[in-house]
Design brief:
Length: about 130
């Protein structure tokens, strides 16, 4: 079964902390995280994108930003926080996640084109020739 969930990035208000995670419903997850700490963290969504193989993409983001890892105790999902003071957090995180989303779209498009070509009985060589007007 496909792992289809949202990969999201939250920013902690007034702090240079970001949470990278996955959830079927990022809005509910935001509430769960905010309510899990006595000091009441205020989170703002930076980006949330639905991705197939969400766990794989989330792990890639965690690995990419591992040197910025900054766990928070007493917070649900507290091991997934990152301090990006020395990194362009807004653009960098959004850019990485958008890259994965676009990669997914390209892959899905390729799969549907391939299925369509095969169902129509078209030869790949002829299709590419017509596409690029050889």
């Amino acid at each position: 079964m496909l792992d289809y969930r949202y990969v999201y990035v939250f920013k902690v208000k007034n702090r240079d902390l970001y949470k990278i995670g996955i959830s079927k419903d990022w809005k509910i997850r935001q509430i769960q995280i905010q309510d899990s700490k006595k000091t009441k963290l205020q989170l703002r969504i930076l980006i949330a994108l639905p991705l197939v193989f969400a766990t794989f993409f989330e792990q890639r983001l965690h690995k990419k930003f591992s040197k910025y890892h900054k766990p928070l105790k007493g917070v649900s999902g507290g091991t997934e926080f990152f301090s990006l003071k020395d990194y362009d957090g807004h653009i960098g995180l959004r850019g990485e996640l958008l890259k994965y989303f676009l990669l997914q779209l390209m892959l899905i498009t390729f799969i549907f084109v391939a299925i369509g070509i095969n169902l129509l009985g078209i030869n790949w060589y002829d299709y590419l020739g017509a596409l690029f007007k050889r």
